Amino acid sequence: MNQDRTRAETLAEGMRVRREVLSDAHVDRAEGAKNDFTEDWQDFISRYAWGEIWTRPGLDRPMRSAITLTALIAGGHWGEFEMHVGAALRNGLTREQIKEILLQSAIYLSVPAANNAFSHARRVFDALDDAETADARDDNSTQES
């Protein structure tokens, strides 16, 4: 832990970064669902993953996202992978760059893992496209009223 920051400051910085990377909606759901059993886990992940690692100056956020996607593919953590595909887009990676990460993973992890990753990434992209289409329809109907 950065010795110049208090535990509370590290948590606050972690929550800020977590919200920027994963979205306010995601963090609000996680925080709203915490209970006595999960409260320590939420504190841990916010302080250490987001407050210590994601705030380090040595890598930019797109690089951290690329590493995270690859690690999640390697571990077969598909729910987290989908969440981090959206985060990677928020962090500045393009769909084309994500595709390249998945192709690279086929060589170093396995073709079946990359095949599964493409399926999960496409699910995220399709959901985002559907949401954008719905938003555009809502904007058009509001303008016509």
From TrEMBL:
InterPro entries reported in the protein's UniProt record: 4CMD/NDH-1_regulator, AhpD-like, CMD-like
UniProt-listed Pfam families: CMD
One GO MF term: peroxiredoxin activity
Residues in Carboxymuconolactone decarboxylase-like domain copies: 40-121
PANTHER family: 4-CARBOXYMUCONOLACTONE DECARBOXYLASE FAMILY PROTEIN (PTHR33570), CARBOXYMUCONOLACTONE DECARBOXYLASE-LIKE DOMAIN-CONTAINING PROTEIN (PTHR33570:SF2)
Protein name: Gamma-carboxymuconolactone decarboxylase
Annotated source species: Kocuria coralli
